[in-house]
Amino acid sequence: MSRALTGKIALVAGATRGAGRGIAVELGAAGATVYVTGRTTRESRSEMDRPETIEETAELVTAAGGEGIAVPADHLDPAQVEALVRRVDEERGRLDVLVNDIWGGDRLFQFGRPLWEQSLEDGLRLLRLAIDTHAITSHHALPLLIRRPGGLVVEMTDGTAEYNARYRKDVGYFYDLAKSAVIRMALAQSEEIGPHGATAVALTPGWLRSEAMLDLFGVTEENWLDGARTSPHFAISESPAFVGRAVAALAADPDRARWNGASLSSGGLAGVYGFTDADGSRPDAWRYVVEVQDAGRPADVTGYR
Prior knowledge:
Blueprint: E1 9-13, H1 18-29, E2 33-38, H2 54-63, E3 67-72, H3 78-92, E4 97-100, H4 120-145, E5 152-156, H5 173-193, E6 199-204, H6 211-217, H7 240-252, E7 263-265, H8 266-273, H9 285-293
Parallel strand pairs: 1-2, 1-4, 2-3, 4-5, 5-6, 6-7
Helix pairs in contact: 1-2, 1-7, 3-4, 4-5, 7-8
């Protein structure tokens, strides 16, 4: 395992579970010190009401070979985020990687429902969780990140800029707006931090086998392919480690500035950097979605893994 990030300091905002946890662990595996934040701790849960905690994530980072530091934080509260960044500065004096993966909106939208049939209260809450949290975190963290050249900001989203250029009617107004806005936020930050020698990108996983998704399909990471019996396209899914390795590869790339402002995917970056998922495969989910799933072709991952 490469230790290319030894000595680097990362902050993964929203690392309780899913992509955030996968990213934090893979940064740790590459040698980084990783501050992991979220609202669910061993003492209390967020409204997501899931069992995963930030303490568990920090322990996984350390077990992988890095140093995991759990910091409870509600990223809608500027004072908490300011205190978080101040702590990173006081303890480490630098920030090399910022990953904005705060979400928490899974229960706040309805598939296939037009705007006027969705809850306005839930929709506005979703936007706050998905957009305001990212802006608040970057507002406080970027001055520390640009203190040294070479910093990396990763804005986590769902879908590439190319794919999200069309309206995603299946997920509806609020979700579509939130995920598209995050891509634009990465572009805006790239313009602002680029002159300081830093890089900002938007990054999407493919069909992510998060803890919640595994539960939904009634499978584990060990027998996940059984989920394809329920939905054949599930065979193109990927573990959180895959997008984690994408972030680690970006952070370790001395020429990462070539991606500044880009909208990237885990599958696309795997083709560039050569990393694989935990099972040794290399799923290219977004190419599959366009060429197979949305094209109405029968499920067939041949040539896409």
